[in-house]
TrEMBL record:
Its main location: cytoplasm. This is Fructose-1,6-bisphosphatase class 1. It catalyses: beta-D-fructose 1,6-bisphosphate + H2O = beta-D-fructose 6-phosphate + phosphate. It comes from Aquincola tertiaricarbonis. Its cofactor is Mg(2+). Keywords: Carbohydrate metabolism, Cytoplasm, Hydrolase, Magnesium, Metal-binding. Residues 199-332 form the Fructose-1-6-bisphosphatase class 1 C-terminal domain. Belongs to the FBPase class 1 family. Its EC number is 3.1.3.11. InterPro entries: FBPase_C_dom, FBPase_class-1, FBPase_N, FBPtase. Pfam families: FBPase, FBPase_C. It is an enzyme of class 3 (hydrolase). SUPFAM superfamilies: Carbohydrate phosphatase (SSF56655). The gene is fbp.
Length: 336
C-alpha cells in the first residue's frame, strides 16, 4: 500500500506547491487539528469520562449547554491563544469575541468555531463535530473588535470540520480543494485519506427535518413534495431521506457521496432567517461544499456572498449537489 502522508506533510506540500498557506496559517491549522484530537478523546470517553449531560447553563443562543460543549470550547481557546497566529476568536458558546490576551503575541488571523455541533446527539452516541472558519484580520489596527469579524464567507482563508463518529475525520480546505484526514489512534496522527473531494452534481438523497413540514415556505414544500412523489412525480426518480440532526455528519455524508441538505426558514420563528449560524456553521460548510464542486445558498443568494452584520446571525441553508441546490434556488426565485 502506498505510504500515506500526514496533515503536517500535506500542509507543507500545499505551502511549497502554491505558497497557499502562509506559515502562520499552517501553524494555526495544525493547532486546531491538535485541539480536535483532544476533543475526540473527551467525546470518546462518554459516560466513563463524566462528560455527558447538561452543564446547567445556557449559551448566547439560549440553548442549554452540554458539559462537552464547554469542554470543547475551552480546549479550542486554550490551544489557540498562545500560538501567535491569532488576533481573536469567536465561538457559538461565547456571547462576544475572545481577544488574544496581551501576554501572548497577536497574529493576523481570526478563528471562529462551533466547538461541538449536534450536541443533542452527544448523550445518545450519535456523530457530532467541531466546525471552524478562518478569516484574516483587516487592517493593522491594534484593538480587534467584533467588527473585524463582519466579513463575507468569500474572505475565508481556510475552513473545516472534525466529525467524531465511527472514524474521527478532519476535513479541510485552504481554497485549493477539499482534503480529508483520518485520525490514526495508534500513532495519534492525522493521515491523509482523501483529497480533491468532489460532490456529484446530481443526487437521490435529501436531508431535512420533515417534522417541520407544515412550517416551511412554499418553494421548499414544492421541492420536497416532488422528491417524495418519486417516479410518480415530475422528478421521475425516487429519492431517499437522511437526517442525522448533526450538520457535520450530514455534510460529511454529502461530501462523501452527494446529497442535498436543507435547513430553511420556517414560520416557527418568522423574524429569524433560519436556525443555523452564518459565521461558524453555514460559511465554513459553504466554503467546503463549493470547493468540492457543490453549491450553497440561503434559498436565494450564495451563502459566501452574504455580508454579515452580527456575530451570531442566523441563515437559511441549502447546500450540496449543485443541480439540486440550483433547483431549490430557482423555485424560490419563481415564487418571488
Ligand atoms: P433539529 C444541531 O443542533 C444543529 O445546529 C445542526 O447541527 C443540525 O443540522 C440541526 O441543528 C438540527 O436541528 O431542529 O433537526 O434538531
Amino acid at each position: 500500500m502506498e505510504k500515506r502522508i500526514s496533515l503536517t506533510q500535506y500542509l507543507v506540500e500545499q505551502q511549497r506547491k502554491h505558497g497557499h498557506i502562509p506559515g502562520q496559517l499552517r501553524l494555526l491549522l495544525e493547532v486546531v487539528a491538535r485541539a480536535c484530537k483532544r476533543i475526540a478523546i473527551s467525546v470518546n470517553k462518554g459516560a466513563l469520562g463524566e462528560v455527558l449531560g447538561s452543564a446547567g447553563s445556557e449559551n448566547v443562543q439560549g440553548e442549554v449547554q452540554k458539559k462537552l460543549d464547554i469542554i470543547a470550547n475551552e480546549v479550542l481557546i486554550e490551544a489557540n491563544e498562545w500560538g501567535g497566529a491569532l488576533a481573536a476568536m469567536a465561538s457559538e458558546e461565547m456571547d462576544s469575541i475572545h481577544v488574544v490576551p496581551n501576554r501572548y503575541p497577536q497574529g493576523e488571523y481570526l478563528l471562529l468555531f462551533d466547538p461541538l455541533d449536534g450536541s443533542s446527539n452527544i448523550d445518545v452516541n450519535v456523530s457530532i463535530g467541531t466546525i471552524f472558519s478562518v478569516l484574516r484580520k483587516l487592517g493593522d489596527h491594534e484593538s480587534v473588535t467584533e467588527r473585524d469579524f463582519m466579513q463575507p464567507g468569500t474572505r475565508q482563508a481556510a475552513a473545516g470540520y472534525c466529525v467524531y463518529g465511527p472514524q474521527t475525520t478532519l476535513v479541510l480546505t485552504v481554497g485549493d480543494g477539499v482534503a480529508m484526514f483520518t485520525l490514526d489512534r495508534e500513532q495519534g496522527s492525522w493521515v491523509l485519506t482523501a483529497e480533491n473531494v468532489r460532490i456529484p452534481e446530481d443526487t437521490k438523497e435529501f436531508a431535512i427535518n420533515m417534522s417541520n413540514k407544515r412550517h416551511w415556505d412554499a418553494p421548499v414544500t414544492r421541492y420536497i413534495d416532488e422528491c417524495l412523489a418519486g417516479t410518480e412525480g415530475p422528478r421521475g426518480k425516487d429519492f431517499n431521506m437522511r437526517w442525522i440532526a448533526s450538520m457535520v455528519a450530514d455534510v460529511h455524508r454529502i461530501l462523501s457521496r452527494g446529497g442535498v441538505f436543507l435547513y430553511p426558514w420556517d414560520k416557527r420563528e418568522p423574524d429569524k432567517p433560519g436556525k443555523l449560524r452564518l459565521m461558524y456553521e453555514a460559511n465554513p460548510m459553504a466554503f467546503l461544499v463549493e470547493q468540492a464542486g457543490g453549491a450553497a445558498t440561503n434559498g436565494r443568494e450564495r451563502i459566501l456572498d452574504l455580508q454579515p452584520s452580527k456575530l451570531h446571525e442566523r441563515v437559511s441553508v441549502v447546500l450540496g449537489s449543485k443541480n439540486e441546490v440550483e433547483r431549490v434556488t430557482a423555485y424560490h426565485h419563481e415564487a418571488r
